[in-house]
Amino acid sequence: MTKPLLILIAGPYRSGTGDDPAKMAANLARLEEAAWPIFQAGHIPMIGEWVALPVLRGAGPDKADDVFYPTAQRLLQHCDAVLRLPGASTGADQDVKIAQERGIPVYYEISEIPA
After folding, report:
1. Distant-in-sequence, close-in-space partners of 79: CB < 8 Å, separation ≥ 6
2. pLDDT tens digits for 96-106?
3. Cα 36 to the chain's mean position, in Å?
4. Yes or no: is domain 6-108 CATH 2.40.50.140?
5. Is 109 helix (H, G, I), strand (E, B) or coil?
6. Is 95 helix (H, G, I), strand (E, B) or coil?
């Protein structure tokens, strides 16, 4: 490997939460659990919500659909890979689809990511 990969961690955030803040926080914590192993492998972890949430605070909660999906689409223009975590998620499935269309590797286990 010549340079660290920017790896988007994709998985459930809002899906199945009914927009309950506690459930979304728990989902974000699960996404963030993958950040350290990716970093430890020499790469840069990225979670779309890390970018989208501050934008959403400025835009207002009624703009969630206008912020979350476009943020991921824009991030995927810069990412080198996607790690798809388990769980139902329309947004994460969309991230995988975009990655595949762009020829970006999609990993389903942290152990698949090259060190």
Report:
1. 6, 7, 8, 46, 99, 104
2. 999 999 999 99
3. 14
4. no
5. coil
6. helix
